[in-house]
Write a structure and sequence with these properties.
By secondary structure, the chain is of the alpha/beta class. The chain has eight helices and twelve strands. The strands form three sheets. It has a five-stranded parallel β-sheet, with helices on both faces. Strands 6-7-8-9 form a four-stranded antiparallel β-sheet, with no helix packed on it. Helix 1 (15-27) links the parallel strand 1 and strand 2 (31-35). Keywords: Cytoplasm, DNA-binding, Phosphoprotein, Transcription, Transcription regulation, Two-component regulatory system.
Amino acid sequence: MTNAAPRILLIEDDPNIRRFLRLAMEDEGWQVFEADSARRGLIEAASRQPDALVLDLGLPDADGKTVITELRTWSGAPVLVLSARDREEEKVAALDAGADDYLTKPFGVPELLARMRVLLRRRQQMVAGEAAQGSRVHFGQVKVDLATHEVLRAGEVVHLTPIEFRLLTALIAGQGRVLTHRQLLLQVWGPEHLDRAHYLRVHMANLRQKIEADPARPEHLITELQVGYRLVGLMH
């Protein structure tokens, strides 16, 4: 993403919702493209190369999760999901598919814009980090060298087990977005351990003991209740 106006793709089949969201986002100075179906949305995503997407799950030709799954095979652009489905299972499924955030209808436009600004900042930081090709990141008093596996907290070496380091690396790669229990189990332990969420709880607790100033009140390794975890405050 450059200093040019952010390019947003809005995939929503309701023309009234599309219209007021487009106007609100254009008022932010963003360039907005529209699609009213899953098929059209994927075509627009490929041709427009947006910096972020707003995606309704209830599309006429396919479930929005299939759009996310397809998109994630070739694009890392952040996706904010809109849905009238408010069940926790739907939220988890969308995040598992690769969405970055989830907003339930009805919603307030100021909240949507605020969440989009967060996603755009995160995307900009990620692109800048990739461009710099740096292997070092930090959050709070913690510094991590992804190349050498060295972890420091307040200048002191922190000794992480291989699993703890893989878990921390997965959260760093998430760039601040929520990673579901399933995503973390898959990345850290592999597909044969997807039913062992207790592994995740135990190792997350150990990781917090080693890198949080107050493990009982974590500032960086944040729990998203019944969904997963996110890393807050990451800097390149």
